[in-house]
From TrEMBL:
Native species: Cryobacterium suzukii
Annotated ranges, domain AB hydrolase-1: 33-158
Record key words, sorted: Hydrolase
Lineage, uppermost ranks: Bacteria, Bacillati, Actinomycetota, Actinomycetes, Micrococcales
CC annotations in GO: membrane
Metal-binding among keywords: no
Protein name: Alpha/beta hydrolase
SUPFAM superfamilies (alphabetical): alpha/beta-Hydrolases
Entries under PANTHER family matching the protein: AB HYDROLASE SUPERFAMILY PROTEIN YCLE (PTHR43798:SF31), MONOACYLGLYCEROL LIPASE (PTHR43798)
Length: 299
């Protein structure tokens, strides 16, 4: 990990929310802070690719409740509760407002944060997430996550076995890197020979049911007034040509929300849109544009 990185533990309901931050030194205190929220079975180590590209700006990235080092936090794990956790995290780290970037389920959390705590959010960058995903009748919504859910029920006898599991993931067939290794190692919990992924399956089950826009989510999204960038990956979770979001779905939301801009990110899948250099280049471009606008028109 880079020299400007430091872990944190922040008190929230039921215990401590863990994660990491980059460039938290006092000299960067006057600059816009970025809050980065990971996906449904991930951790804050999805973000080093992006943090490298944000210059001297402070980046705060939690492990959401039920994931990674925050997996001891009790449920419920609903999206609204994640948003409340993040508001408390900003209080603890003495951050008034932030540009918020969320990937996959993290984008849904970002929307709820902006809705429930509007004084904490300058703008949103939603990365292949945050737009309601219709749930087909009779189809288990966990199937949408593919191997991400399968691994949560598995055990691994060694760290290398777990790394081999990730090495075979089709999303990283052309993008395996030391940072993906770091991400996978950080995700591992337990003791050999019964090592297991750190994410709680109960948290995933609860959250995946909320991604269809229910429980007031669609209304919350439509009611936002902050600038929103939506970045779409053209390939899915398994690097398949069918994207999580069809191009027409994103375009339709852009017609409904005048302050939402859709950006296409070429040659990435749902993971490598943030966990690769070329993906992070595009996400960073969007985040920097929002930072610039935030600093041009301070609240």
């Amino acid at each position: 990990m880079s020299d400007d990185y430091q872990p944190f533990r922040a008190p929230v309901a039921g215990g401590d929310l863990c994660g990491g931050q980059w460039r938290a030194a006092p000299h960067s205190g006057q600059q816009t802070t970025v809050l980065a929220i990971h996906g449904i079975t991930a951790s804050h180590l999805t973000w080093p690719w992006l943090t490298d590209r944000l210059g001297s700006h402070r980046v705060i990235a939690p492990d959401l409740r039920g994931r990674a080092r925050s997996n001891a936090l009790p449920g419920p794990y609903g999206l609204r509760r994640h948003a409340d956790d993040l508001a408390r995290l900003l209080d603890f780290l003495e951050v008034d407002r932030a540009v918020v970037v969320g990937h996959s389920m993290g984008a849904f959390v970002a929307v709820w944060l902006a809705h429930l705590h509007p004084d904490r959010v300058d703008s949103l960058v939603l990365v292949d997430g945050g737009l309601p995903i219709p749930r087909d009748t009779g189809i288990d919504p966990l199937l949408m996550l593919g191997p991400a859910v399968e691994r949560l029920s598995q055990t691994f006898d060694t760290e290398q076995t777990y790394l081999d599991f990730w090495r075979g993931h089709p999303a990283f067939s052309a993008d395996w890197s030391p940072r993906v290794v770091d991400f996978a190692r950080y995700d591992l919990d337990g003791v050999a020979p019964t090592l297991h992924p750190s994410t709680r399956l109960a948290a995933v089950v609860e959250n995946v049911m909320e991604l269809n826009g229910s429980d007031g989510y669609t209304e919350a999204l439509r009611g936002l007034a902050v600038p929103i960038d939506f970045l779409r990956a053209p390939r899915g979770l398994l690097n398949e040509p069918t994207a999580l979001y069809d191009r027409s779905v994103a375009a339709d939301w852009a017609t409904q929300l005048s302050h939402l801009t859709v950006q296409e990110v070429d040659d990435v899948n749902h993971y490598t849109i943030i966990m690769s250099d070329r993906g992070a280049d595009r996400v960073a471009r969007a985040v920097k544009a929002q930072i610039k606008e935030s600093e041009r028109t301070p609240i």
